[in-house]
Every structure is written in structure tokens, then in C-alpha cells.
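Protein in question quoted for reference:
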Amino acid sequence: MRAAKALGCTVLLVTGKKLENKEWPRESIDEIFYVPQDHDDWHMDEVVRGLAHVLRSRKIDRIVALDDYDVEKAAYLREEFRIPGMGQTRARYFRDKLAMRIQAEEEGIPVPPFTATFNYDDLRSYMARTEGPWVLKPRSAASAIGIKKINHINDLWPVLEKLGDKQYSYVLEKFVPGDVFHVDSLIDNDEVLFARVSKYMNPPMEVAHEGRVFRSHTMEFGSRDEKELLKLNKKVLKGLGLKRGASHTEFIKAHSDGKFYFLETSARVGGANLVEMVEASAGLNLWTEWAKIETRRKGEAYELPSQIEQNYSGIIVSLAKQQWPDTSAYNDPEIVWRMNMENHVGLIVKSSKQSRVLELLESYAQRYYRDFFTAIPMAEKPSN
């Protein structure tokens, strides 16, 4: 929003009423519209009527989703008012874990064996031919919210029974132990113009479900894994049809065979302050560049910054038992960013040497568990 305003745009924010007191960059927002909420849900027919009223006196050129839960809402509104950008069918590939897996498989992209949960005979057949354990994932939740590990076929049926009429909205997938990577990208005119490859030091599912400190770091430039992931990332985004914007895509390198498998992708920047980590590594801000892509004039080409840096960076974030954690004892010169969030603690480090980044992240993780760490039970249901 800051970048769009700096580029001369009029910025209108549509958000849930419960987020009224969030620290929005109000100096960069021309007007805020709050949507009444029934629990966590928006009534989209009301949003449509409200936006139609706004359009009587104003012209809207772009609708941008700020997080995963907004992708489908933004696509719905674009379709209704014929505003350029990704529509509902295409948006499914970047929100619906079943749709993105089916499309990726059709494009020849390796994915862990999976099945829809519509038909019980299909489920029995899948589990008979696919060795467990498995994971049952909500098709449209973000991060690791709502994921359940299934160790035996008999464990599945009580879980589905509990889900009731909602069980169709899940996908069952083989659990693949391995190292998880993410590729953060900028796309314009169907081409990936920038991508940075990073590796989670703890898989996101482990962080979310078992209570761990979150860490990620830049992959070694020019390494075999980086090259392969850059190729796979291009294939995924081309195959799923992201024409412009930003994306955060995750892959797993299986311990069993050393191969990469596609896990999921998105039509937005990565969460958990990965934007700041990428900025420390590359010297560009994904939000800012995304704003430039969206606001360029028709026929005008978007150009990356002339110099992309090749630094190694890493991030470490945790829930904290203190309301406002004091990180002053963490004073290494490589620290370039400190989190300022209630009951959270986070640092980003930058170095020309990957070994130094890894050394700091390992050291800080041990200290975090002693100084700050706390955990709360994982939410069963996502909140918008």
C-alpha cells in the first residue's frame, strides 16, 4: 500500500471490521471500508453491493489480495466487475490444494501421491496402493492450519465423520519426510523475472504442530538444488498460469529418493516476514516491486532494479513468553531487522557467507528456547 501510494495511486482498503485497529499504513490509505463479519466469514453479496456503490463515483483499476484468504475474494470481485487480473477459475490453482495438485500433475510436475475425499471407494483404493502415513489437508487453508496426520487407514474414518458435510473440502496426500524449500518470485507477462530460493530449517508443519522456532535461510547460489528449484518454480507458475504479480511456492526434497516434489504455491508474497528476509538477500522489496508491476501503464514494461544483490540472509521468529521481548543482548553486526510485535520475537541476519548465517541461526535458536520461547495449541480453523 505504501508503494502503490508512492507511485501515485489512490489506495482503498477493504478489510474485516475486526481488523479495524490493526496497524495499517494509514498515511498511505485514502479510504478504508470495513466489512461486517459473521464470525470469520464475509458475506460476499454484501461486499459486491458495497463496492458497486463505490464504483458509482470512482474507477477501480486493480484489486490486489494481501494474503491467502483474500485471493478468492479478490478474484470474485474482479469477475463481478470485470476488473483486469486473475479470475475465479485461475485463482483456484493458487488457493485450492486439490486443484493445484491436479493441474501440476497434468503439467508433468512431480507431486506426492494424493486423492480427493469425495468418494469412499476411491479413498480405500488410494490408501491400499499408497503406503502411509498420510496427511489430510484443508483445500483452502493457509500455512499448516487444519492439517492432520493419518497413520492408519482406520484412523481416517473418525476424522472424516467429525468433519461431516465439510469433508469434501479436504485433500488426502502421502506424507513425504524431507527438507522443505520455498521460492519467492516476481512475475510479469507470464515470465518469472526474479526468484530467490530458500530453505526452511524446520518444516512449517513441524513448527505449527509441534511448537518450534521458525527459521529459514537463502540457499547456496549456483548450487545444484538452487538451479533445479528455479526450473521447477518456472514450470509451476507457467503451468498454473500466473501472469503477473508475486508468488511464494514450496517444494519438498524427499529423504527417500532425493527428488523434489511440488507442495503448494500462491498468488501473493510469502508470510512470516519472508519479504524482509528476501530483501536482506536481494536488496529489493517484493511488495514494492509487485506494486510497480500492478500499476504500470498498458504497454509499459516493468523493469527490475538494475542491481540485484547476492547476499545470504536468514530469519528466526518465535512466539515469546514476554509481551515485548528485549533482544538487545543479540548484538551481532549481521543483524539487519528486528521484529516489533507483541508476544513475538524475530531477527533477520545478512552476510556474504552462508556459513555465517547458518552459524547465527543455530546459535540464536538455542538461545531463543532459553530466553523467549513459548507455544500455544494450533488453531483448528483458520481466521480471515
Remarks:
- The first strand starts at residue 12 and ends at 16.
